[in-house]
Amino acid sequence: RHTDGSIHLFYNRCPHKGVKIASEPCGNTGKFFRCPYHAWSFKTDGSLLAIPLKKGYEGTGFTDTKANDGLSRIRNVVVYRDFIFARLSETGVAFEDYFGESLSTIDNMVDRSPEGKLAVEAAPIRYMHTCNWKMLVENQTDTCHPMVAHESSAGTAIKVWQREQGDSKETPMAVQLYGPFMSPYEFYEQSGIRIWPNGHGHTGVANSI
């Protein structure tokens, strides 16, 4: 995010020698990006800020190269309700055509906030599945597995809380989040699933965990 609030996406490599510039998965870079190899620096809009020994490039044609333009940009970017979507290929289906009415799920989530926007309060959890990606996506709308596959985590969380709660009437957030995964088949059967073209869909159109 630039100093004026605008959003820019770049390939994470220095145009000088191709070294990775941002080594952390998330955070705030401050006022500029700095390559850890030769200290080339770039503004947060991606433009070249400074390079060491700049006079040494005079008369070399450097100003006519892509390196002089700064960080390589990802051109196809759409910001929808503060969610950032990027397409790396130059050609492809337009954003609106690809997502269509499935964007209503994002609207439904964001509109629940009194401010009309959401905030990320913690770092994301990233994990890698060595599998066919279509199986992972299909799993998100499979309502016959939660009470089985998540019993060791959700079921244990409920049992521990029931044992330790004492006189407390407040339910910890972890139990609120994991507990519903142990709901019976009947609950999930009645929750409803909605699907759209291009593989989009969500569970819980009638009721939700």
Question: What's the short version?
Answer:
The chain has 209 residues and is an alpha+beta fold. Helices cover 24% and strands 12% of the residues.
Strand arrangement across the biggest beta sheet: 1-2-3
As residue ranges, the low-confidence spans are none
Q: Beta-strand percentage?
A: 5-15%
**Total DSSP helices:** 7
Question: What is the H-and-E element order?
Answer: EEEEEHHHHHHHEE
Structural class given helices, strands, pairing? alpha+beta
What does the radius of gyration come to?
24 Å
* Overall pLDDT level: 91
What's the shape? elongated
Number of strands: 7
Major sheet: size, sense and barrel closure?
A: 3 strands, antiparallel
- What's the helical proportion of residues? 10-25%
Task: Give the N-to-C terminal Cα separation.
Answer: 34 Å
Explain this structure to me?
- With 209 residues, the chain is an alpha+beta fold.
- It has a domain at 133-203.
- Helix content is 24%, strand content 12%.
- The strands form three sheets. A three-stranded antiparallel β-sheet has the order 1-2-3, with no helix packed on it. A two-stranded antiparallel sheet has the order 4-5.
- The longest helix is centred in the C-terminal third of the chain and has 14 residues, at 151-164.
Write the layout of secondary structure elements.
Elements: E1 32-34, E2 41-43, E3 48-50, E4 76-80, E5 83-87, H1 95-99, H2 104-110, H3 133-139, H4 146-149, H5 151-164, H6 173-178, H7 185-191, E6 193-195, E7 201-203
Antiparallel strand pairs: 1-2, 2-3, 4-5, 6-7
Family: Belongs to the bacterial ring-hydroxylating dioxygenase alpha subunit family.
Pfam families: Rieske (PF00355)
Domain Rieske: 1-52
